[in-house]
Structures are given as C-alpha cells and as structure tokens.
Automatic annotation (TrEMBL):
GO CC entries: mitochondrion
UniProt-listed PANTHER family: D-2-HYDROXYGLUTARATE DEHYDROGENASE, MITOCHONDRIAL
All copies of domain FAD-binding PCMH-type, residue ranges: 51-230
Organism from which the protein derives: Tribonema minus
Official protein name in the record: FAD-binding domain-containing protein
Assigned keywords, A-Z: FAD, Flavoprotein, Oxidoreductase
Top-level taxonomic group: Eukaryota
Length: 487
C-alpha cells in the first residue's frame, strides 16, 4: 500500500504492512517491536509535544546485524525509517512526518570497551549519556558533554545532532571528541569506521558526515569517543550583573582570572530565572534579580581544590571591586553546586511547563548575544503582542555564543509564530550567526536552511544524501529543504 505522494509532490514511500511487521518480528523478536497504539504514543511525539507522527511500528534492534537486516528490508520495500534515540531532540528530527517506521536504538546499549590509558570509550549508540558518565566516574573519566537531557538522550543521538551543552567551552563540540563510528547505511551496508586512534589521516574523514546528519545519512550503531580525565575540583558560582554590558566585562575578567580551569559560562536573564522559579518547585532562589538584571553561572573544573578556590575568590574580589557584580553565591559544596546548576537546567523544563513554546537555539556574536531578545520584545510591542500573550526570554551558553531564545505562550499562537519567523532567522543571519547552534535543523528549520547555506552547498548536501541514501528512506522531511531523492 503506497501512501499518497507528499503534499510537496515528492516521492511517496510505502507504508509498512502486516507482512513487513512479520519480517521485523523475525529479525528482532517480539521484544524488539512496539505496535500497540497506546505504547506508540511516546515514540510519535517529541519532548515539547510540538510534532506528532503516525508510525504504526517501532523496531528496537539489539545488534548491528539486526539493524542492517531491518534497513535492508525497508530499503527493498521503499519504506521510510526515522532513527530515534532518546527522543529529546528539539527540532522534530526524531518524529515521523507521516507513518514512517521508527528504528529505536534504545536496545543498542552495551559498553563495548574502555581503554583507561587512552581514555577511549567504545559503546552502543543507545547508551544513555548519564549512564556513560556514571560508568566513567569510578574510572576517573567523564563524558565530554553535559546537557539537561542527559538522563534520557543517547550517545547516538548526541552524535547525530553534534550536541553541544554546557561543557563546550571546555571540551569543544562533540564532533571534536568522536574518534570512530559504526554506521548502517540505508541499504543495510555496515560501515565500520570504528577506530580509536586520536589521529587518522587516511583519506576523507567519512565519520564526520554522520556527526550532525540527524539520521539522514545512516544509523549510528556504535561510537568510539575520547573521554577526558574527570576533574577532581569543581566550583560553581552564580553572580548577578545589573546589565548586559557588565556581563561582557565579567566574561572577559573570568577568562583572564580563571584561565584554563574555566569550564562553563551560562547566562540567564531575569525572566528566565523567574520562569524557572515560578514553574519548577524546589529550586532554591540564588538572589533577587530585578528586571533587566542577569544571572551568570560560572563553573571551574580543575585538579586542585585549594588552587581553584583561590582563583575563583580572586575573581570575585576583582569583580565586586570593579562593581561588575553586585550580588553572588559561591557553592560551598557539591550539593549546593547542584542546586545552582538546577536553576539553569530547569529553564527549558519551565519553558515546556504549561502552554506552548517557540524555541530558537542560535549562534550569535558574543557582544550581540542578548540583542536578539530585545529585538523580539520590541517587535512584539510593535505588533501589540503583550507579554502575557508572548513572553520572550533569553539564556544559554554565553561562553560559546549560543543563545536560547524562548517565547512562551498560553497556547499555540500563529500570530506569534508569524512575528518570529522568519524575523529571528533573518536577524541571526544578518548578524553573522547560525540559525541552529546545537539542536540541529530537523523539521523546524529545514525551510530556512537556504538562509544559512548557499545553493552550491545545498546542492552538494543533496548529492551526498543521494550517494548515501539513494532511495531517500532515511528521515525524509528533515534537514534538507526538500527531499532530494525521488524514484
Ligand atoms: P533523538 O531526539 O532521538 O534524535 C535526534 C536526531 O538524531 C533525530 O534527527 C534522529 O533521527 C537522529 N538520531 C538519533 N539517534 C540516531 C542514531 N543512532 N543514528 C542516526 N540518527 C540518529 N541539545 C544540545 O545540543 N545542548 C543542550 O544543552 C541541550 N539541552 C537540552 C535540555 C533538555 C531539557 C532537552 C529536552 C533537550 C536538550 N537538548 C540539548 C536537545 C537534545 O537533548 C539533543 O539534541 C540530544 O543530542 C538528542 O539526543 P537523543 O538521543 O534524544 O536523540
Ligand atoms: C539548554 C535546552 C533547550 C532549550 O538548556 O541548553 O539547549 O530551551 C537548551 O533551548
Ligand atoms: Zn543548550
């Protein structure tokens, strides 16, 4: 049964039939299938409940061979497939656009090896990030990324979105830490790029194409990742700055005074903090923040408690003396450090609590980090969109110029969407930034990719897509502006 060609007339795909599901069952067993309508719901809906699919079957392979056989079957039958990890993505990349088969990596969750000397971890794509960090802790290492979704997101999904998070300042984007991948291509070919060498200059670095490809070029089944030594001394402070100009002064001072031990600089505006405090009970208020003030979370990660504390103390003395900071809290122990981080990590949770949210994860030049929030608020005023209808706030990874602009509304509001898109994307591109910093393109931003990438680049991406996935069955409707493959 072929489903209707897509609205945009592109190549339609075959819907999986009962016979196809029998084939899947013969490959992964009953334990590797979800077909019950109720059980399917969480797989067909994203974390923000903005996108929903109508997949009638989730296949959960346990081995690479099973992934290969499932894909070979789908490829032969022109059945579209959505690879899914922890389903915490925020651009609709892991949700079917129609009734595609969902291939979940959740059962590919074995640790394969850990080389303690080199700090290289090899594991299944379905390993949950937090579980990997827990595995590494007693071994004196840590995963080179940390994000609010760590309890659910999987390393295969992190690789496929080239996830950022709060440790990018220290360890760089995930791309830099991935040493090898095992990937299964759309036709079932197993591509063994699973190497653990830090250096390997032997032809085109093919693994890089899968990092950030959001499931459109292949299914990542194993990952080899460089894991840094776990810092033995971590200190966290939240400081209050009266305005954004002073935030920039604090940032410059922190880089000078803390140097190599500075591991995170996260910014929250007053509305971001107030939204988290109001919607997430149990958070401990760090300080009073009047409108227009900012909270800056600083973290240092080093190997000598005394040395690091002395550096943080010297920074604070200089910041208070220069009146860059007018209030602040330094965590006295790891539990208080966790309390301070909890405020930052709950901002997106608060944004998702109640009502509807419009989210813009963008890279902007650091000096202009907060300008977009002000421009959106001005635009809302011009369009008479009052704050109780559309509240815009800004927070994010100041250290690497990654702003999270969130607009929260009582409900889905097309007038607010029209006010935001393409305004936000045009503004970012004009500022020399990127319309997607770390969350990827997914369904949300594919129509705007042409603002960020020229026709030559888009044509080359389409050529790569056709080379890797000639029938276009992997994650159609995501990333590229139109599905470059048709029968
Ligand atoms: P999914 O959501 O399941 O999938 C993401 C994309 O990757 C989809 O396109 C999917 O098709 C594809 N995919 C998944 N697994 C595979 C695979 N094995 N092979 C091929 N393709 C695959 N992101 C950040 O970068 N930084 C943050 O700070 C951050 N904070 C977050 C905080 C919260 C509270 C939440 C809910 C999300 C946050 N995210 C953040 C977004 C999200 O967690 C990341 O994008 C994460 O990397 C997604 O991992 P996942 O396993 O959930 O992937
Ligand atoms: C973060 C999470 C989601 C958002 O908290 O760093 O990446 O709100 C974000 O953009
Ligand atoms: Zn983020």
């Amino acid at each position: 049964a072929r489903n209707l060609p897509r609205e945009d007339g592109a190549f339609g795909f075959t819907s999986a039939t009962a016979e196809d599901i029998d084939v899947f069952r013969s490959i992964v067993g009953e334990e590797g299938l979800v077909t019950d309508a109720e059980d399917l719901v969480p797989y067909n809906t994203d974390w923000m409940k903005k996108w929903s699919g109508s997949s009638r079957v989730v296949v959960l392979p346990k081995t690479t061979v099973q992934v290969s056989r499932v894909l070979a079957h789908c490829h032969a039958r022109a059945i579209a497939v959505v690879p899914q990890g922890g389903n915490t993505g925020l651009v609709g990349g892991s949700i079917p656009t129609r009734d595609e088969v969902i291939l979940s990596t959740s059962r590919l969750n074995e640790i394969v090896a850990f080389d303690a000397a080199g700090g290289v971890l090899t594991c299944g794509a379905g390993c949950v990030l937090e579980a990997l960090d827990a595995y590494l802790t007693p071994r004196g290492h840590c995963v080179p990324l940390d994000l609010g979704a760590k309890g659910t997101c999987q390393i295969g999904g992190n690789v496929s979105t080239n996830a950022g998070g709060v440790r990018v300042m220290r360890y760089g984007a995930l791309r830099a830490s991935v040493l090898g991948l095992e990937v299964v291509l759309a036709d079932g070919t197993v591509l063994d790029l699973l190497r653990t060498n830090r250096k390997d200059n032997t032809g085109y670095d093919l693994k890089q194409l899968f990092i950030g490809a959001e499931g459109t070029l292949g299914v990542v089944t194993k990952v080899a990742i460089a894991t840094p030594p776990r810092p033995t001394a971590v200190s966290v402070a939240i400081l209050k700055c009266p305005n954004f100009d002073v935030v920039l002064q604090l940032f410059a001072l922190a880089k000078t005074a803390l140097g190599e031990i500075l591991s995170a600089v996260e910014l929250m505006d007053s509305l971001a903090v107030e939204t988290a405090m109001a919607r997430c009970p149990g958070l401990k208020r760090p300080m009073e923040l009047e409108d227009g003030a900012f909270a800056v979370l600083l973290e240092t990660s080093g190997s000598c408690e005394e040395h690091d504390k002395a550096k943080m103390g010297a920074l604070l003395d200089r910041a208070f003396a220069a009146e860059i900071v007018d209030d602040g809290v330094i965590a006295q122990d790891m539990s208080q450090a966790a309390d301070l981080w909890a405020i930052r990590e709950h901002v997106p949770v608060a944004a998702a609590t109640g009502g509807y949210q419009y989210k813009y994860d963008v890279s902007v030049p650091i000096p202009r980090f907060y300008e977009l929030v002000r421009a959106v608020r001005r635009r809302f005023q011009e369009l008479s969109l009052a704050e109780d209808r559309a509240a815009a706030f800004g927070y994010g990874h100041l250290g690497d110029g990654n702003l999270h602009l969130n607009v929260v509304c009582a409900r889905k509001d097309d007038e607010v969407l029209r006010a935001l898109e393409p305004f936000v994307f045009d503004w970012v591109v004009a500022a020399g930034g990127s319309i997607s910093a770390e969350h990827g393109v997914g369904q949300h931003k594919r129509a705007f990719l042409g603002l960020q990438k020229g026709p030559e680049a888009l044509a080359l991406m389409a050529a790569i897509k056709r080379a890797f996935d000639p029938r276009g069955i992997l994650n159609p409707g995501k990333v590229l502006p139109d599905d470059p493959v048709s029968q």
